[in-house]
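Thread: sanity check for a docking pose with flavin mononucleotide

Original post by kr_44:
Hi all, I'm comparing my docking run against an independent structure prediction. Below are the sequence and the ligand SMILES. Could someone generate the full complex and paste the structure tokens? I mainly care about where the ligand ends up relative to the chain.
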Amino acid sequence: MNVLEAIQTRRSIRRFMKKPIEKEKLTRILESARLSPSANNNQPWHFILITEKKAKENLFPAYPRNWFVEAPAIIAVCIKPNDGWSRQDGEKYWKLDAAIAMQSIMLTSHDFGIGSCCIAAFDEKKAKKVLEIPNNTRLIALICLGYPIEKKDPVTDRKKLEEIVHYQHW
Ligand SMILES: Cc1cc2nc3c(=O)[nH]c(=O)nc-3n(C[C@H](O)[C@H](O)[C@H](O)COP(=O)(O)O)c2cc1C
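Reply from moderator J.T.:
Ran it for you. Here is the predicted complex with flavin mononucleotide included:
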């Protein structure tokens, strides 16, 4: 699968087989996050791999959806904002660094036939406590991973290119 095909066919998956994800594949998925670009190459990220049943169940109160805790693996994407790069005017780029690593995780997983769903609508305070994430670190996303049960068509519900691309000026 080439990159554009991967982008076209990756969809959010919220129903997973019980089958665990092979350790080797999880390592390669994390490797794709490690290799991602970040502003000034600051790499302000940390990733927590959660595969144990009890550890996943402990996260349920932070995002009370059964499909979430039933995913064979969850990757918590964490950022130390103080390690991130800021532009001259003070604009901070650490959330973008996280987003790029997240896309790497989702596309690499998809290439392995593993479905994913990025979750942002969790209770950060509760999840940080459960995962013992330090105070100086933000929890940006929880990415569920697993072999998909549901099958989805390639992406169609996006704005048209004419609506979002401008040439020479807005
Ligand atoms: C940053 C981000 C946060 C998201 N948060 C959630 C979430 O909290 N819960 C959820 O079910 N889906 C979440 N999603 C999945 C989106 O709803 C989904 O990507 C979008 O509807 C497009 O569908 P697709 O991924 O199947 O193409 C999130 C996606 C992104 C990129």
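The domain at 3-164 is CATH 3.40.109.10 (NADH Oxidase). Hope that helps with the comparison, let us know if your pose agrees.
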